Description:
- The chain is an all-alpha fold.
- The chain has one domain (4-173): Arp2/3 complex 21 kDa subunit ARPC3, CATH 1.10.1760.
- 66% of the residues lie in helices and 0% in strands.
- The longest helix is centred in the last third of the chain and has 30 residues, at 144-173.
Amino acid sequence: xxxxxxxxxxxxxxxxxxxxxxxxxxxxxxxxxxxxxxxxxxxxxxxxxxxxxxxxxxxxxxxxxxxxxxxxxxxxxxxxxxxxxxxxxxxxxxxxxxxxxxxxxxxxxxxxxxxxxxxxxxxxxxxxxxxxxxxxxxxxxxxxxxxxxxxxxxxxxxxxxxxxxxxxxxxxxxxxxxxxxxxxxxxx
Length: 188
């Protein structure tokens, strides 16, 4: 049975991610960065995916995917991707992040910082690919790659702030994220 501190920590991460989903609507696109946006939902998901176990990461992927689809899904004539496709994309990228989780738990956050950026780029390109495949035309928007790389850099820049918040939430809830080593426990 999960400990109370783990449950409080998990609930606080869900609240943090929900707050990020609401806050992301108030962050305008940056004209200096080719109209790129600070993608708070993916950045928070990727930061959370590094701190929790795999089953809980899948729950976060479901929440992030539903929030992402509810905000960004465009229904057009001629078909659209189904609601929930990004749940799969978040679960896929979160699974890749689980591979560097032991490094993060040992206090090494340099590589996870770059992995968050790579996962952001993978998410945006995979989403473009799925939408283009559904439409039946693979046309590149003029500033597509500029927006992908600018959004990736913005997510990488906000990641240390998110890691700091997660570390503080872990300390306050009594479920520390940094253990110096991986501890095997049952549950989440």
